[in-house]
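User: I'll paste a sequence; please echo it back and then give the predicted structure.

Assistant: Echoing your sequence first, then the prediction.
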Amino acid sequence: MIDPPTSQTESALACDCEDSMRSACVGRSSEYASGKRFCVLHLPNVNKREAFQKAFQSKIENKDFNFQGAWFPDALSFSDSEFEWFMDFSSATFESEVDFSFASFNGGADFTSAIFRTKVDFNSAAFSEMADFTSATFNGEADFSSAAFSGKADFAKVAFGAEVDFGRATFSEKAVFDKVSFGAKAKFASATFSAEADFRFSFFSAEADFDRATFSAKTDFRLATFSAEAVYRSIAFGGNANFALAAFKAEADFRFTTFTSDVDFSHVTFGDYIKFEGKEKPLLASSLVLKFAKIEKPDRVSFHTLALRPNWFVNIDARRFAFTNVHWDWRKVSKEIQSVMIKGYASPHSLLAITCRQLGVNAEENNRYEEASKFRYMAMEATRLETWKGFAPWKLSWWYWLASGYGERSFQALIVLVGMLFMFGLLYHLVGFARWEPRVSSEADAFVAKRDEAGAPLPFNRTFTYSAAVMTLQRPEPRPATTAAQAVVVLETILGPVQAALLALAIRRKFMR
């Protein structure tokens, strides 16, 4: 049988709890396992319920809200409903400082609509089941650092009037922070969210610090508002991250953040700096959606040391973004188009073409000419693939693509040029060239002289050198004797230099405007 409460002085001398917790002790200590003794507040034993209820009621009546290190028994298993109330703090008003640091809640903890007038401390508290703080009001500082939430943590509609700290807190089940008002700095540094995290409609009026936090499942920040700096450095998002319709009115720092699944920033408003930065070129996400995001200061948006894909920037103007040490995941244009289609866009080919042109302008203005060349190619290729799956030989643009990849692919232009050399060389082996030319010394000789108009094909060992000479406008001998031979020479005289010019253009675009 546990003894009734006595003075704090007596209990503090006997309880084997941590020295820092003894100011909260109530009642004479009882013997426990391993020879240790604990007061009724700190005794980790479910059989203490009746004595704990009396001690708890005594502290409440005395406006003593020091429950540091308290061990709250499991109220949900009570057979007598008389004792269920002591776990229920709903609608309670705490006028003085509240200390639940290192406390263990072995049943559900209900703080719905509770009002905390001054500082409240839940540092390192452990919640074995659901922790419900719905609609609670925190007028003073709230410390939940290193708290462990084994059940659902519900902070929906909570108003934090002063700084709140969830640093190093662990959320094993769903964490609900929707419609929460953060009136001062909100710290979630190094917090761990193992299940879904819901921050929809939340309002961060001061700095939001998620530095080195870990989100292992779906994360939802839709329609959240960040009025001051938002820090997401070194975060690992293991599931979908949805920031749709959120508003970042000040700096948003996503440096060293890893998104291993989809991340949605559609319709988000960015008012100041936004920084995405990685360490070793990881993919920012499997899918990044920035459609219709409002960038009030586009020159303050930066992507540093990341791997990106062009389709992520559809429906957003990226011409003034800063891309530093960025690795573009160059996939086939058809795959990029397919990614745009999956997101439900009506005109995926046109939208991707516009996006690639804008990214190309960005790259060219920042002297990344080879990168700009690839973007220009993707833009024109997306347009070509929009009709007849890209097969349209009646269009000049189709021949431009075939000849040199729109003047952007030097290797393709070289292959076509060499192919033309060999093709015309083979033709010269089939058409007739003059075997001899009559020599004339007077007008009379010219009148009676007859030129060889039948001719003979060139020997195979001369065809390719002859083709190269024609292509470089050298007018080699012998001259074409037949109409067919003349037509082939004229055609190579036109096409050869044009193809060589396309090759030169493609090479030039890799290094300069």
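Residues 1-12, 76-86 have pLDDT under 50 and may be disordered. The radius of gyration is 39 Å.
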